[in-house]
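## tool: complex_structure
## caller: assistant
## args:
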Amino acid sequence: MPNLGQLALAIALILALYSIAANLFGARRGATDLIVSARHAIWAMTAMVAIAAVSLWVGLLTSDFSMEYVASYSSTTLPTVYKITSLWGGQQGSLLLWTLLLSTFASIVAFQNRRRNPDIAPYALAVMAIVAVFFLGMLNFVTRPFDLLAVRPIEGSDLNPLLQNYWMAIHPPSLYTGYVSTTVPFAFASAALITGKLDETWIRTTRRWAIFSWFFLTLGNLFGARWAYEVLGWGGYWAWDPVENAAFMPWLVMTAYLHSVMIQERKDMLKVWNLALIGLAFFLTLFGTFITRSGVISSVHSFTQSGLGPYFLTFLILVALIYIAALIYRVPDLRSPAEFESYLSREAAFLFNNLILVGIAFAVFWGTIFPVLSEAVRGVKITVGPPFFNRVNGPLALGLIFLMGVGPLIAWRRMTVKNLATHFAAPAIIGIATGLVLYGIEIKQWYVLTAISLVAFVAGTIAVEFGRGVSARRHMVHETTPRALVNLVSKNNRRYGGYVIHIGVILAFVGIVGSSFFRAEVKKSVHPGEAFAVGPYMLRFVTLTPLNTPHLESASAEVEVTRNGRHVATMSPAKLFYKKPQQPATHVAIRSTPLYDLYVVLAGIDDQSGMATFQVFLTPLVFWLWAGGLVMVIGTVITMWPNVRERAAIAEVLSRGKQEIAAEPARGGE
Amino acid sequence: MPRIWTIIAAIALLLFVTSPLLAKTTVDEVSQGLTCQCGCGLTVANCNHPECSFSVPLRGEISRLIDKGLDRPAIIAMYRAKFGEKILSAPTTEGFNLLAWVMPFFAIIVGGGAIVMMFGRWRNETPPAASVDDRVSVIDPKLREQLDAEVKRQL
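## result:
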């Protein structure tokens, strides 16, 4: 199996190189056969990478410790599900997963464009193949997943205990999917720059890919936050760790892109900006991997580090320089007649939204690299942690939420002050009233008051927008309210799906604000049978149950939770000790409600006295962070769903395609 | 009577201004300002190792210092003197470190300025639009009917 895997990777590299050459020569000389051959090479490359991935999985599942990777990240006692997930538990496996996703996406792009975009698709595929060559080069020459050990150990070192969690089964693949899929819009943007076909084709072709990428970046970030919440045991979910930042930055830039691209589609403006944003998003995904893998910046996520840093840095710099040079070269061709009438317009709101999103991304980038800068300039190592990021990004987030409220109701081109007052009166009253109510119930932190008032304002604008749409349908096509609502969303799914995403964002924001400002912590050592109070709850330590398996030892505490004398839950926080890596870990017990999360950590056990120490966090509203994430998922699905008009257009194109094929049977090589 | 109100207002103002100073420093407030040195990369308040050899004793020490009457800046200054700048969870606001705080806002201000300049240029290039009344008056009733029918079809 190891030989097969390594051979498959070598063949994949050759195929990727061939695909670059065939795509470029084929496109330049108009040789259709060569382009078709390049496409086949992409598909064959994907098959080879899949064979390599399957080979590694077989090695992990059969505990083939002759393979260095398997011996380092697995063991005979590791549960099967984690044997599968340990493919991305180490560096070589992570890069293999990245390459598998990249080649799969390249194959899909090749299939989607087999009859479309003949001018730019070969160049886009060549760009994707260049990225694949870099990763395949790493896997073949620098960090090989199929290296064998001179002496086969009897047992493996096991997977890092922090990675033995179900969120780790989906967090890295989601995040990687988000990262890698930015390559598609980037490749088409590059193709547009190479060919000079700078119209909307590249944007139209990659619109769904961009949303797909944003969707998985959102999921990846949320799953990562949930993993941190459940595994790290400090009651929080986001610590502004460099690797978290690296995942957050492309999300911010992709969010900016998804908004600014609407201006290009609508008004043919911001062509340079959109090309720059997509380049930046791709650059940041590589930067994220560079941070994780190089060890340049210390991180809680640095499970594996190696000498990959210089290679990544070189590739990163090359990509950035070539893309910037191409963009500058094309700037004269990207000029278009711009129309702008007023600051009171949707285009202005979108541009300021872009400014803040990119501003936050810059602040995060700056804070992430500042320790390295400080060490280089002053020779002093400093830390840039949560207080910096919260203080800098907190006010910017408020500006962003405000613009999220303004965007849906403000008109394109211009809006009169009178119209503005008419449209925004109700949401503004809702926002102010919410602020006053909060002040009345003794919530007096200015940030919380402003944040929740703005959230209410945004909810108001979205409600007004839905209300107007439903009312229009009821009057014009005489539909009932529920039917009007369904038709409104299904026939304008991109717009109203976007508003649903906004609802998800404000719910998540409520969760973030509530959990950041009002978290309470209690630490208590108690004997079995004793109880202690945490907020409205009473926690009674019942007993401690030990468990010993070949894989781990654990001690699980049974904690009975009551509220006003009524039993509400039995929670089981535990301390774990993984035998192979000889590492302790925590199993947190969480009881989640829309109002509070009760988060119980078994912090210590005194064997002599039988006392257990509990660290308990009572975190308000954190439930809404995850609920908001779910709403964002629903909104994205609505946005991506082909609507009635699109389906009709697709059917028309397909039938036209069939007619053309029937008329020209001898065309092409397929 | 007005004099009493003046006194009450003055006291209220004094309380409002001094209340943050009177508020007792908490262990969490102080430990959020310090970075754990065990390698977890988190703050002393958030270190995820239940038996961490750095953050657990430090939190106890901070609690004792608060009981002795030391406030947040004094405690943080003490640890900075002991461990160096690396223990601070955020850069200081002096010297080179000031750049960390200033740059993000500077970049946003520059970006905002660029947008305003761009808008100004675009606005000069944009031909003045007809007034709302003019636009309404040029719509032929037949066209209006056609438009309504088209809108209904799209709905």
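## assistant note: DSSP finds seven helices and no strands in chain B. The helical segments of chain B are 2-22, 27-32, 55-67, 72-83, 98-125, 132-138, 141-154. Handing back to user.
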